[in-house]
Amino acid sequence: MKNQPNQPQPQTTKKQQPHPVPYERIQTILPVYLDQTGDGTQIYTQDGQTTTLPVPITHFMDQFAKTYFLDPRALKSFFRQKGLTGPLPLYLAGQIFISCKVRKPKISRDPCYGFIAYQAIQDLVPPAIFILPHYQIPLACSLATAQKAYNNGILAEKILADYQKNFFQKD
């Protein structure tokens, strides 16, 4: 059998490094602008730690949802069918994340919505600031819009509890 020189070797893909923060510990996910890389994502955890990733928040949220085999667009559609309007929540890692505008867009299609774990919010104070155990999240929306997002978190929790009860109920 003759050796064949210069045969192309099959390419292997390097496994992506795991996420530095366990998803279950995430409380807040915010879009940020990074000087070196552009759009980034800032993550706050339950114990007050902060991590900044050089990936756009949309990419991070898609990866977050894929980890739990969820389609964020389908989940938002589900909540719309159940009667929720306005800023719609996401259910990920056993938490309900409400979405709120956290910065003014610099250009069109600039990500400006962040996601806050609704169960972690201790208070909403004027002008529009969510108070969490280790930090405060100033919002770029009105107090009424922030209250609507929070109320949608409450409704989403009830909708999901009813759905789970009915789904697992035996006939």
Summarize the structure.
This protein is of the alpha+beta class and 171 residues long. The chain is built from 3 helices and 9 strands; from the N terminus they run E-E-E-H-H-E-E-E-E-E-E-H. The strands form 2 sheets. It has a 6-stranded antiparallel β-sheet with strand order 3-2-1-6-5-4, with helices on both faces.
Radius of gyration: 20 Å
Question: Which class do the helix and strand fractions yield?
Answer: alpha+beta
Please write the string of helix (H) and strand (E) elements. EEEHHEEEEEEH
Q: Which stretches are poorly predicted, pLDDT < 50 over at least 5 residues? A: 8-18
Q: Please summarize the sheet with the most strands.
A: 6 strands, antiparallel
Give the fraction of residues assigned to helices.
Answer: 25-40%
Region (Disordered): 1-21
Biased composition (Low complexity): 1-15
Attribute tags:
globular; 3-stranded antiparallel β-sheet; 9 strands; 171 residues; alpha+beta
